[in-house]
Amino acid sequence: MIEFLLSGDAIIALVTLTFLEIILGIDNIVFISIAANKLPENQRGKATNIGLVLAMVQRIILLFFVSFLVGLKEPFYEFENSWLELHLSWQAIILFAGGLFLIYKSTSEIREKVETPTHDENNVKKRVINSLQQAIVQILIIDFIFSVDSILTAIGMTNNLHPNSNYSLVLMIIAVVISIVIMIGFANGIRKFIDKHPSMQVLGLAFLILIGFMLITEAAHLSNTTFFGKTVGAIPKGYLYFAIAFSLFVEFLNQKLARNK
Q1: Where is the chain membrane-spanning (predicted)?
Q2: Rounded distance between C-alpha atoms, residue 125 and residue 37, angstroms
Q3: CA–CA separation, 98 and 151 (whole Å)
Q4: CA geometry: angle at 172 spanning 248 and 28, to 5°?
Q5: Residue 128 pLDDT greater than 60, yes or no
Q6: What residues form DSSP beta bridges with 73?
């Protein structure tokens, strides 16, 4: 286990996944702040911290559940004709559905941020909160909605990193815990940075489109899918890491040029 966690692939996956978890958690922080700000001032910090800790527990439970489904690798249905062959398993179905969801959710979020950036915030502001318990319940509901893409991203980044799926699960849990701890400690600073550089969040959503496409191809590969005699191969995760690193480098140069001007 320790050797795996200290390996180059695991460290790169952990750093990348933690970064994406934080970027994806920005909206969550904004909505939690809106919910907490409806309480008396002496309860706002408490509601935020309790909400984020419970959100971390909620995500870890979801990780166990989704990882169990992804672990069901045995095919239960086979299809074959002159141009298509596939062997369906629950693992492939979860990855395929997750990839479609990430692509849909990311493109929808990007469109909404460009056209109606305050739509979701306004919906949260309309809800009435009269007590700390109500605020925490609302925070958990909000986090559950945002947990789905977070969990699918973690699955996509760590799937098949190690033959033992439990090792990948531990890596995902570590990334979730680190990201939540960072958000608890630097929530306001992170939110201000993203407000100042909104392109970072759009970039994170664009990464989700890449991860969604990778999940779809991974599902086809695990199903031994063959189109017209051509077998679908898996996309090496190194390509994804390079694309993310290159995009962040370009964004860094853009921000530096903007500051110089």
Answers
A1: 12-35, 47-68, 88-104, 135-155, 167-190, 202-222, 234-253
A2: 10
A3: 9
A4: 65
A5: no
A6: none
Q: What six digits make up the tokens of 168? A: 């990948």
- pTM here is 0.69
Tokens linked to 26? 């920005």
Q: Are strands 230-231 and 226-227 parallel, antiparallel or unpaired?
A: antiparallel
pLDDT at 126: 59
Domain boundaries, the chain: 2-260
Alpha helical stretches, state H, the chain: 2-5, 8-36, 41-70, 90-115, 119-126, 132-158, 165-196, 199-222, 237-260
The answer to whether 83 and 127 have CB atoms below 8 angstroms apart is: no
Q: Pick the range with the lowest mean pLDDT from 17-26, 159-168, 174-183.
A: 159-168
Average pLDDT over residues 201-220: 82
CA 118/CA 92 separation, integer angstroms:
36
In this structure, what DSSP letter does residue 118 have?
Answer: T
